[in-house]
Amino acid sequence: MTNEPRPAGVTPPVAVVFAAITFIALSIGGLGVASLALNADVIPVRGLGAIPGVVGQVAALALFSAVLLWGLRADPPGYLTAVPCAIAAFVGEVGGIVVGALVSGADPARGVAAAGSVALSFPGAVVAAAGLLAGLVGVFLRRTRAEGPRWRWEDDEEAS
User: Fold this and answer.
1) What sign results for the dihedral spanned by CA atoms 139, 79, 26, 105?
2) How many Å apart are CA 131 and CA 124, to the nearest integer?
3) Residue 3's pLDDT is what?
4) Is residue 3 a contact partner of residue 155, using CB atoms and an 8 Å limit?
5) What are the pLDDT digits (tens) for 36-88?
6) Terminus-to-terminus CA distance in the chain, angstroms?
7) Over 90: is that where the pLDDT of 7 sits?
8) Residue 124: which residues within 8 A CB-CB, separation 6 or more?
9) Which long-range contacts (CB under 8 A, 24 or more apart) does 144-149 make?
10) CB count, 10 Å around CB of 152?
């Protein structure tokens, strides 16, 4: 056993990267499974195409990552950091759908209707839940005190 100080977990940027990957995987997978199980469209407004959904996911990912990075500044970060991450992901998704609809040339009223339907239906809840879980993953990664695996022969010969 060495007298090295315990590691302080992963750095905040690394934790945000892993949590962001977790968020996008949970969000897209959760939306697909919920849509299939409920036999409902994620964005029920017809004629918008895929751009509002893509922009919504990108905006949700960006806001989630920014809020998580801000929350991981504390040492150690609190588990409640995941709650603003979930709210940021939800707001990013809803706002991104409006922006995506406007970018794609759709009528602004249709974009707002699509965002409202996402906010009040299962997609908003799925994105918020994904943000909450992924935020917890980021906090867990930052708070961990584990060190990398070591083989017995890697230890100093004198310490034996």
Assistant:
1) negative
2) 11
3) 56
4) no
5) 999 999 998 888 889 999 999 999 999 999 999 999 998 889 999 999 999 99
6) 9
7) no
8) 90, 93, 94, 118
9) 144/9, 144/10, 145/6, 145/7, 145/8, 145/9, 146/7, 146/9, 147/6, 147/7
10) 6
The DSSP output letter for 11 is -
pLDDT of 16 above 90: yes
Average pLDDT of the chain?
A: 90
Q: How confident is the model at residue 152 (pLDDT cuts 50, 70, 90)?
A: confident
pLDDT at res. 4: 59
pTM: 0.85
Q: Which amino acid is at 112?
A: V
Which stretches within the chain are classed as H helix?
12-38, 51-71, 82-103, 108-120, 122-143
Q: Residue 83 is encoded by which pair of tokens? A: 């709650």
By the 8 A CB rule, do 51 and 114 touch? no
Half-sphere exposure of 36 (CA within 13 A, CB side): 6
